[in-house]
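Dear V.,

Thank you for sending over the compound details. I've combined the ligand you provided, copper (II) ion, with the protein sequence from our construct and run the structure prediction for the complex. I'm sharing the raw inputs here so there's no ambiguity about protonation or stereochemistry in the SMILES, which I know was a concern on your side last time.
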Amino acid sequence: MRINRRSFVQGLGVTASSALLPTSLFAQNLTQNELPIPVLNGGESQGGSQHYNLQLQSGTRQFLSGLTTETLGINGSYLGPTLHLKNGSDVAMSVLNQLSEPSTLHWHGLHVPAKADGGPAQIIAPDTSWQPKFTVNQKAGTFWYHSHLLNKTGEQVYRGLAGMIILDDEESESLEIPSTYGVDDIPLIVQDRRFNEDGSFRYVGMHRDVMTGVFGDRILVNGTTSALFTPSTNKVRFRILNAANARTFNFAFADGREFSVIATDGGFLEKPVALRNIVVAAAERVEIVVDFSDGGPVDLVSLPLEASSPYSTTGMMRNMMSMNTETFTILNIEPQSALQRSSTLPDQLTSIRRMQAAEATRTRRFELSMPMGMGRMGRGGGGRGMGGMGGEFLINGKPMEMDVINEVVPVGSTEIWEIHNDSMMMHPFHIHHGQFQILDRDGVPPGQEEMGFKDTVKVGPGQLVRFIMRFENFSDPDTAYMYHCHILEHEDNGMMGQFTVV
Ligand SMILES: [Cu+2]
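Below is the predicted structure of the protein with copper (II) ion bound, written out as structure tokens.
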């Protein structure tokens, strides 16, 4: 570990330009930890397919100096390896559950058969293994995997059951972009956590934790607090995964420098999009390329969500979300003294055929509501999964029920799904099975950075978001896919539904 000179300087008030003021709600260490890079696991080639061996295990970590935290992980004590998949390859996963509790492992964003999806129905009992097989059949991108156990997803992800997936195809391998894993192609799994005084994770403790989702006062990147990255190249590609349970990040660099967004959830944008900040909700991914040629240190930060943001919590709930009202540091960055030159970005990254609304044969509507939502007061009974603290989080007036299939979608069809948010806070809506394109929010097409394929979409308070999606290749009348809010405490308390593709 190294002494963080900049934090000392800031503490003395010499510079107040960025990040953490002394009054910050965020705890800050005075030491920095080198950013760890998760092991890249490309599987083993056997009999024509790639075999991946994953073990869910419990362990301990020292996130805070001198304190031990009990954790969960995959092939390690916290989080898991980065799984490297190639388009077209046959994948055989083997997931051995060495925990003392059941779990599942869901491949978030992957287009796979329902039985291989790892949703709440594909329970892996302790001391058993789950062996789904699928053929990778989609464009290159950054995906992830995580526990999806009914009513327990939030807790198991909080304790560490998550990891990144990098999918490559011929196109991604031929592009002249930073793509050396761990050198100029850097995974950033961003999470917030809070701890008890004994070092243990402090998960849901009160009603508010369920209402807003659980927020933490410590930022972990790849499982490490106060992470420091020292680039060795002038351009770096960050694969940013918001793996927080609830928090929305508004990523930017402390000096306001521009960066290029090259990919979102389902893969590359057609062209790089230059931005100075980007709002990323829980479960969303963005790939950005940033230039460090000037050699100076700069922090990756999260800016406040302004009250005027369409994703800001409204009404009386806004007070409960005070932790999204300040700037805080995500990653300290100090470029090395001599930087290798990496490629310049191409003008064109891929081509995307925009689906037209007229291609859809059916429109379905989904109403998201929560106990304090407008017009839904007093509807719910007791809580679900959280011992009565939650109240009812509903989609179309119904909470998740394992034995109810809410929607049946014909295989090969194209549909528009309208998601209406009837509450005071933003919900990131996620659908399994495939990738969609956002048509519009309240009738307005999204910005260029949301014109690529997506599997999770921000639906602000009161908003109506429409997306279009093809449901193809896999049909199974007996096994459902999920759609749900990706604020995990909302999902665990009912804001989830099931659909089959038949
Ligand atoms: Cu939600």
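A first observation: The chain has three domains: 2-34+176-333, 40-170, 357-501.

Warm regards,
I. M.
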